[in-house]
Every structure is written in structure tokens, then in C-alpha cells.
Amino acid sequence: MSRIFVPTIFAHGSDITGRSDLPIPFWLFGYMSIVALVGSVVLLTLFWKNSKLEEASKFSYEIKSRLVIGGWKALNAILRLISLALFLTVLLAALFGELGGRNSIFPVSVFIIFWVGLTFLSGILGNTWQTLSPFDTIACCTKWIRDKWQTKVAAKKNASAKISPPKIPPVKIIPPTSNINSWLAIIGLFVFLCLELVHPDNSGTRLVGFLILIYTIIMLLGASFFGRSWLREADAFSLLHRFIGSLGIFSSRDNNKNAKNNNPKISVPFTQTAQLQLTLPEVIFVIVFLGSTTFDGVTNTDFLPESSNWVVNGFGLIVTIALVGIVYFLAMFISAAQTGADHIKLARQFAHSLIPIALAYAVAHYFSALLDGWQIFLPLLSDPFKQGWDLFGTAHFIKDFSLSPITIGWVQGLSIVIGHIWGVFLAHDRALAIWPTNQKAANRSQYPLVVVMVGYTFLGLWLLLNA
Q1: Mind spelling out the 3-state secondary structure of the chain?
Q2: Residues of the domain holding 395
Q3: pTM flag (> 0.70)
Q4: Would you place residue 5 in the very low, low, confident or very high pLDDT band (cuts 50, 70, 90)?
Q5: How many domains does the chain have?
């Protein structure tokens, strides 16, 4: 992220450097983290002997109040309109406005507010993208207009005809399979990551605007042919927020497609994640996201400093993602050898445990960037095209809001530790669901994954230390 705007603002890992900022030595913090992680494994093995998270109804409360549901629908409509207006503003600014980090609203909106802020919000509240997606809003409005027009035309024909015209069945276009849609989402995510992490000057190029426009056209064409539900799997950001949003407190209708209604539900955090059943492409999708945050952390260290060569950066991103994937699938291969299960099937069944880890890494690497980014976003929100406007009274907003390095250090360090502990918790509960009558097999299946998580905890803390 340091290649956006100025390095001092987006050097997100720098806030945890120099462990003299922490009340305890960093090596002690690292050892305490590993003890907490391994200790959680021991406690779960001793006291958590039955899967309890597989039934979502035990951990969620459906809101049935008509007043609350009506208010939510109204708020949903307002948020959709605001999101769509902001999306169009950012698109126009990226295509025709001034370039440069502080001269245009699009870099901070795309790479900080959208990519970082909205992801964090989904991790807390639930899937925010199902409401804020401009693609879904446009597709919804288009469908409503088309249905109204077809109904009006049909009514005119029926009124003028003495005999009712024969009903002609609509042309049915078979949508791509779920796996194909997920692969499209992987491609979309990887292109965005290349733009964010690989491109040497993503705040000073029209490429961002053109790619947003092309991606919008693809999403809208797919939705027009295959329906709005197609966006849930083919849109990279829809898939990302569905996974990250499963950690939040509000249930997502995307996580439970068989639900009889779309009434909002309040859930215990992380319990929705336990309900996820990922396909192989979706496993790859999670690995790509996790690998990207790892790569971003590595490029902020002296071990592999950030390069201005997009070929070098692109190769480094691919290699990092590949290494993360190899380590995970190797752990699943060893687990399969110990339990006699299929390693691909195990990789699909345990991949949901990587989701809290992926969010934890995003928090660790982008937390301080978000604190600074919103202070740049607010003035540009009132004057997105640098015309001297003050639409919302924030054009001259100056607020040096920042937390102390100690606070940021604790947030970054603890987020990694907590994310890994929750990953262990989810993996343990899933293992008990797979082997409900064979606790030895359930325990053995987790050992390779726990080793990987311990190593990944060390890596994450080391990256923060050396950023």
C-alpha cells in the first residue's frame, strides 16, 4: 500500500517496528502468542469433544419485527443509492479527473475506503457488499424496469387482441456452473491485486478507471444473461465479502441460499463461518487473498524490499501465493495420510479456518493505512473533481487523528494471534463434525494444520517486526 500517495501515510507495517514501543519485549510477545495458540489446541482437545457450530440456528436470532424489517429495507435502499452515487463519482474521477493521490478521489476510495475499510466493516457487521454492490443495484433496477415494460406491453397486446395470444416461453440461458463462476472471481481478484500491489503508480494512471469500467460491463452483462444470483459467485468482491462477512454479527443471505426468507438475523461472530462449505476454486480464492497480504508484508521488509519493476512485483506476488497454497495443501496431504481421507476433500473442508487468519492479516497490514486514509477521503468527498466545491462541508477538513505506536502495535500483533486462534477453533469443530465417533482421527487431522498456523504466526509477527 505504500505506493499509494506518500510512503509515510501507507507504510502500514512501520507502526509496529522497534519493539521498544511495546510494554514487553517483542520476543516475549511472540512466545506468549505461540503458547496461547498451542494452549488453545490443548484446551479444545480436552474440553471441546463434540461439534457444536454446524447448526446455525443455535447461534442466530431472526428479527421478525415489522418495524425493524421496514426500517432495514428503507436503510438498505438509501445505502444502495449512496453507494451507487459514490461509485459513479469515483469512476468519472478515474476516467476524466485529475491524477495523483491527493488530487483525485479514486485512489483513496478504491484502495483504502473500499478495499480496506469495507472489508473490515464486513468482518464486524457481516456481508456489506450484498447491500453496497453497485453492480447488484444496477442489475436490480434494470430488472425492475424491464419487468415493468414487459408487463405493460403484454397488457396492451391482451387488450387489443380478441383472443389471448399464445404464451411463448422465454429463452433460457443456462448459467455457468459454480466452479466456473468462482474461477472468474479468482481472475477478478488477482487483477485487482496486481493493480494494487504490482503496478508502480496506481494513483497516477487511467488504467484504474478503464479496468473498473470493463469489470462493470462484464458484471452487468453476466447479470443480464444469468440473473442477479450470478453476481454472488462471479463477482470477486461479492465472494470475498461473503467469506469475510461470515465472521460478522449479521447473517448474510448469501451464506444460506436455501433460507425461506431474507429477514435479518443476528448471529454469534464466526458461527456463520462454520457453516461454509467451500468448493476447490473457492479454496484457491481464499489462498490468493491470504497470499496477497503476506506478499504486501514481505515487500515492506528489508528481506524483499518494494520494487518499482512491475514484472518483479508480479512474479513475487505469484510466488508468495503459490507458497501459501503449497504449504496449506501439503498440510492437508499429511492429514489425509494420517486419517485415510482424501486430501482434496480435506482441503475443501478445512479452508474456512483460513478466513479469520486472512482478515487478521488484513487488519495487521492495513489498519494504520485506514486511520490515515479516511482523513484524505473526507475533503475529497466534498470536492471530488477539484473544482473548489464543498458539497458536504468537509472540503477543508483537517484532523490529525492517529493512535500511538503502542496502540497500533498491540492491534496489529493481537489481530494475528486472535485470528490464528479462531482458525484453530473452527478447524477443531469441523474435524469433530467429520469424525464424530473417532476423536483420535479428528485430533490427528488437525496437527499438520496447527503446525502451519504456528509457523504462519511467527511469519506474521516477524513481518510486522521488520516492516
Answers
A1: CCCCCCHHHHCHHHHHCCHHHCCCCHHHHHHHHHHHHHHHHHHHHHHCCCCCCCCHHHHEEECCCHHHHHHHHHHHHHHHHHHHHHHHHHHHHHHHCCCCCCCCCHHHHHHHHHHHHHHHHHHHHCCCHHHHCHHHHHHHHHHHHHHHHHHHHHHHHHHHCCCCCCCCCCCCCCCCCHHHHHHHHHHHHHHHHHHHHHCCCCCCCCHHHHHHHHHHHHHHHHHHHHCHHHHHHHCHHHHHHHHHHCCCCECCHHHCCCCCCCCCEEECCCCCHHHCCCCHHHHHHHHHHHHHHHHHHHCCCCCCCCCCCHHHHHHHHHHHHHHHHHHHHHHHHHHHHHHCCCHHHHHHHHHHHHHHHHHHHHHHHHHHHHHHHHHHHHHHHHCCCCCCCCCCCCCCCCCCCCCCHHHHHHHHHHHHHHHHHHHHHHHHHHHHHHCCCCHHHHHHHHHHHHHHHHHHHHHHHHHHHHC
A2: 7-153+174-466
A3: yes
A4: very low
A5: 1
